[in-house]
Design goal:
This protein is α/β, with parallel strands linked by helices. The protein has 18 helices and five strands. Strand 4 and strand 5 form a beta hairpin. Helix 15 packs antiparallel against helix 16.
Length: 341
């Protein structure tokens, strides 16, 4: 058994591995020296409980929250964060308002810290209050501006996501920023902090339905997350109106761009959830999905890794009704040519 924590890598990361670790080779090291007097995040390395305790003591003394980043040098999504988020001027400027802690998951003692914070996979980012209360888990697979948005919500005095969720489930008032915190929470790295995995699809569907019309983007994201968890007949039961809602999203360049990470990482799961049985309806939806993914694949505003993620999602859709262990699938010639290119 591996000593490294594991979870399903996003398809973009799998493709990055297939293409010879481009991001590993080109992504800057977390502690790499910056040229001249260029600013950088003042990361505190941690490999043991004593290191974490000192970081929390600093957070309490400075009355700042703490951002814990758990990663590894060999991890493609981690290098994606380093290359697209951690080197951003706004992230570096914002880092002065929190204590930044880096846990290298491959160092001795890191696994014990993983157990302490219920972290199992790379990358994981957790924003915590100085007293150790978890405020939120940041999604590591959305593009950098969205991560910055979620981080800002937490830094602006946001309540812990657990308290926000309790109010939302009870029908008590939840503010617009708090709905966005729920929608962009790192549900896939939650490790049952808020809800058991088996109940997640139903909860996300309930939250999407309860989300006010003024927070349409948050409601859409919660719905897509619910569909992604509803594969093989679990969770949401689809109907024609729900399928049309997703089809409209896929046809909208701006809306699909905003939900890019969910669409690329869960294209087959969403398609299966909306069309439980193989056949003409599933093929039609997969074709609509593929068109949206082609648009994301060609979107120059996305990182190279995210564009590759759209391509590998197209491959997964093309294999949607094939056995998972099929070694020689027949792919559309045009798609195959793009993969080879």
């Amino acid at each position: 058994m591996s000593h490294r924590p594991t979870r399903r890598l996003p398809r973009s990361a799998l493709l990055a591995l297939l293409v010879a670790g481009t991001l590993i080779a080109t992504g800057p090291a977390l502690h790499a020296a910056t040229p001249g007097n260029a600013p950088a995040v003042a990361w505190l390395p941690a490999a043991a409980d004593a290191d974490i305790d000192r970081a929390f003591a600093q957070a309490r003394a400075e009355k700042k929250p703490l951002l814990l980043y758990w990663g590894a040098k060999w991890c493609p999504p981690c290098n994606q964060l380093k290359a697209t988020l951690f080197n951003r001027a706004d992230f570096i400027a914002r880092s002065k308002h929190f204590v930044a802690v880096n846990i290298d998951g491959d160092l001795p003692g890191a696994q014990k810290l993983g157990g302490r914070f219920k972290v199992r996979g790379y990358p994981t980012m957790i924003l915590m209050a100085p007293d150790g209360t978890e405020i939120t888990r940041l999604p590591g697979e959305v593009d950098a501006p969205q991560v910055m948005h979620v981080l800002q919500l937490g830094l602006a005095g946001g309540r812990p996501v657990k308290a926000v969720l309790a109010d939302a489930r009870a029908g008590r008032p939840v503010s617009g920023p708090e709905w966005r915190t729920l929608a962009w929470y790192g549900w896939d790295i939650d490790e049952a902090q808020l809800v058991p995995a088996a109940e997640r699809a139903g909860l996300l569907a309930q939250l999407s339905a309860a989300c006010p019309p003024s927070e349409g983007e948050a409601a859409t994201r919660l719905l897509l997350k619910a569909l992604a968890e509803s594969d093989d007949g679990k969770g949401i039961k689809p109907d024609a109106a729900l399928r049309q809602r997703v089809i409209r999203l896929l046809a909208d360049p701006a809306a699909s761009r905003l939900q890019m990470d969910v669409l690329t990482n869960a294209a087959p799961e969403i398609t299966k959830a909306l069309t439980p049985e193989p056949g003409a309806d599933r093929l039609a939806l997969a074709g609509t999905f593929d068109t949206a993914l082609q648009r994301l694949q060609a979107d120059a505003t996305l990182s190279r890794n995210d564009q590759l993620g759209a391509l590998i999602a197209r491959i997964a859709l093309a294999r949607i009704d094939l056995p998972k262990d099929e070694r020689q699938p027949t792919l559309p010639p045009a798609l195959l040519a793009q993969v080879r290119a």
